[in-house]
Amino acid sequence: MSYRKVAIVPPEKFEDLKLEGQKHKAAGFTAIQKSFRHITEEMGLLKGIKILNKMNQKGGFDCPGCAWPDPDGHRSALGEYCENGAKAIAEEATDKRVTPAFFKANSVEAISEQTDYWIGKQGRLTTPMYLPKGSSHYEPISWEDAFTKIGDKLKSLDSPNEAVFYTSGRTSNEAAFMYQLMVREYGTNNMPDCSNMCHESSGTGLGDTVGIGKGSVTLNDFYEAELVIVMGQNPGTNHPRMLSALEKCKNNGGTIVGVNPINEAGTSNFINPQNPFAVLSGGTDLEDLFVQVKINGDVPLLKATMILMLEAEEKAPNSVFDHEFIDKYCEHYDALVDHLKASDFNQAVKESGVSEKTVRAFAQLVIEKKKIIICWAMGITQHKNGVGNVQEIVNLLLLKGSIGKPGAGTCPVRGHSNVQGDRTMGIFEKPSEIFLEALDKRFSFNTPRLHGYDVVESIKAMQEDKVKVFVGMGGNFISATPDSQLTGESMQKVDLTVQISTKLNRSHVVTGEAAIILPCISRSETDKQSSGIQFVTVENSMGIVHTSKGAFEPASEDLKSEPAIVAGIAKATFTNNQGKWSAMVANYDVIRDHIEVTIAGFENFNQRVRQPAGFYLPNGSRDRNFSTENGLAKFTVNPLPNHQIPADHFVLMTVRTHDQYNTTIYGMNDRYRGIFNERRVVLMHKEDMHAQGLKGGDVVNITSHFNGERRQANKFKVVEYEIAKGCIGSYFPETNVLVPIDSVADKSNTPVSKFVEVSIKKAQS
Ligand SMILES: Nc1nc2c(c(=O)[nH]1)N[C@H]1C(S)=C(S)[C@@H](COP(=O)(O)OP(=O)(O)OC[C@H]3O[C@@H](n4cnc5c(=O)[nH]c(N)nc54)[C@H](O)[C@@H]3O)O[C@H]1N2
Ligand SMILES: Nc1nc2c(c(=O)[nH]1)N[C@H]1C(S)=C(S)[C@@H](COP(=O)(O)OP(=O)(O)OC[C@H]3O[C@@H](n4cnc5c(=O)[nH]c(N)nc54)[C@H](O)[C@@H]3O)O[C@H]1N2
Ligand SMILES: [Mo]
């Protein structure tokens, strides 16, 4: 078989690196300035201001950036957006267009040789395109012909399990519900999603211990918390509006601790750009303590902390642990205590990479405070023991009775703006029996019971020639997944790949034999159907469901909404009951009525979601109503990770810069880290550089090592950085080629993107 010659990984070429040193303040005036620059470049200032005014306001549209919630009550007149939300919207509402003429002028091979930055900057997709088998260029296709091609192909497969349906987390609840319905009516649960690579370890770890895979806190809890621990998260860049909540916590007397291999600017100091006084005065020093763990030093840190807590509790019973809570709501307390007693404090401290003094200072805070929130993101979940990390966090909070009371709780900070909602809607390869039964009853068919492929399993199935059709509802599967070269080659084995997208990305050029692009309208755009203008709904990181209504002209007349696209594919695939799909598209209230009947917590959905700020979904752990089999929250015993890394190897974490949204590269700078105009960098501690004979600016090649296999990424510039020793950092997606497909988290199967064993070699220049 001969595949199209395309570049699967971005080109190994340099821009022009400039360094300004690590920053210790986030946001402020520069943030406002930068957001306006992105807006003006993409769409002009006037349109930009109009758009920002609608974002995250009641009755407006939901920011397509992160999933951080909006305040329940008052919303700032300056707009509830942040610099990076402004960039997200600039990227989506850009005036630039990818037209048929663009595809005529550029072969898929030529596009693939560009950087992800260049590809994204070409603008919005405007019309359906078709890449026939053997062809080098996309050509325009009508919607009808595109749907027919997809339907015919789906109908021709030997088994529905030969098709895979991916979802990224921007998809609305309505589109997600229809999509999963179509996929299950077709007959498969092959529904991998971005969550598999993201917070799956949180869902698994929380589900097993407190009975629900979602966080327990609300925004108000932040204002009351005595201690907020931000672990493995970079909120200044990835959830900037969270800094306002931390600031409020701080102003109310709360204490904030960062746990991270690098001291990220956002957690150390925050200049609230919406508060002119703060901009002038230099802002709020948020962080009271910074705990510089080694990469994956979190379980050891938490264990050492719990050993100290236990010691203090034994000295002064009932002063540290909340026994009333533990006795009434928890089980396996004794097992945890026995384990802590048998654990070696010194070994735990050593493996955390933190000095004993700092571990003790951290433990002292936890011992003293009664209302504790722990927030976390990818630094916790994307590890072999990602689920164990989450469960250690739960252990600590349960000991303190810090779940299900005001000012305390679990806070996995979600990524994509509707990733949590998509899962609630049934985007999951392992759906529950209750949900499937509800679908069967409502729609009178038999949903498949066999569990489907997640992301990693999908890639392996493609590699083994088991997949004939791949459909992507948003996202950029090629650049977001691990082991880029292998993933790309596996995707090329698929007969037909279909991408439902707003913007051009690498997944449109690294395709199956034949490929189709179906362009859709975005969040900020008006969605007009036969019954009138529609709104959609989303669920944020704290379980609030609310509306999102676009207000701007779609980027092209030839776009369809995601629900309309799903209905188009469904009608071309199924012969019976076509009316069901048309009715849902005509009026999204009909979709919401189906959701109300099939998913718990959506009673009177259409009515309640029209309340200005939406409504909270039920959350047992918030009310100490733990929905585990026996109703009790569980303490768990999690071993220390066992790392054996040769002395001359490093542990690499692959992180985001300040100028990207996952695989969408907004710009070439990582402002808070002081790195400008270059993405191919590797952050290293000066002693490690010295030991390797490296100096700043040297060019190195990186080799990853896993089970005797090697993977290679070349040409990165060394940047001296205050990162924990033995650890290095570089950017996603350029380094995804180094992440081995078999390096996954136990239980959640999440690719281990934050712990890649590598060696570094100076390149011949
Ligand atoms: N502007 C913007 N916003 C975004 C995104 C974006 O790309 N751009 N992406 C969205 C998505 S999908 C997600 S999931 C979130 C991601 O939000 P984050 O999880 O904040 O994103 P990462 O850049 O992966 O950063 C991980 C952080 O964990 C730290 N870390 C790495 N390894 C470890 C470890 O072993 N222990 C500890 N304690 N810390 C560690 C890193 O230094 C870094 O600060 O953001 C969402 N919001
Ligand atoms: N090495 C490494 N790999 C990682 C990570 C990491 O930290 N390190 N993080 C992982 C995480 S947390 C995540 S969530 C995944 C992200 O994986 P994905 O969600 O697959 O990737 P994105 O880059 O967010 O997808 C961007 C594309 O989505 C499309 N899009 C944007 N908005 C819309 C919309 O409204 N509708 C539709 N239909 N399409 C739209 C655009 O075409 C855009 O190019 O990556 C994972 N991969
Ligand atoms: Mo994510």
UniProtKB/TrEMBL annotation:
Q: Which domain of life is it from?
A: Bacteria
Q: Does the keyword Membrane apply?
A: no
Question: Could you tell me which residue ranges the Molybdopterin dinucleotide-binding domain spans?
Answer: 650-751
Q: Which SUPFAM superfamilies match?
A: ADC-like, Formate dehydrogenase/DMSO reductase, domains 1-3
Q: Recall the GO molecular function terms of this protein's record.
A: 4 iron, 4 sulfur cluster binding; formate dehydrogenase (NAD+) activity; molybdenum ion binding; molybdopterin cofactor binding
Q: Which cofactor does it need?
A: [4Fe-4S] cluster; Mo-bis(molybdopterin guanine dinucleotide)
User: How is this protein annotated for GO cellular component?
Assistant: membrane
Molybdopterin oxidoreductase domain span: 124-525
Q: What GO biological process, any one, is recorded here?
A: cellular respiration
Entries under InterPro entries matching the protein = Asp_de-COase-like_dom_sf (IPR009010), MopB_CT_YdeP (IPR037951), MoPterin_dinucl-bd_dom (IPR006657), Mopterin_OxRdtase (IPR006656), Mopterin_OxRdtse_a_bac (IPR010046), Prok_molybdopt-oxidoreductase (IPR050123), YdeP_MopB (IPR041953)
Q: Which UniProt keywords apply?
A: 4Fe-4S, Iron, Iron-sulfur, Metal-binding, Molybdenum, Oxidoreductase
PANTHER family tied to this protein: PROTEIN YDEP, RESPIRATORY NITRATE REDUCTASE
Family that this chain belongs to: Belongs to the prokaryotic molybdopterin-containing oxidoreductase family.
- What protein name applies here? CbbBc protein
Originating species: Putridiphycobacter roseus
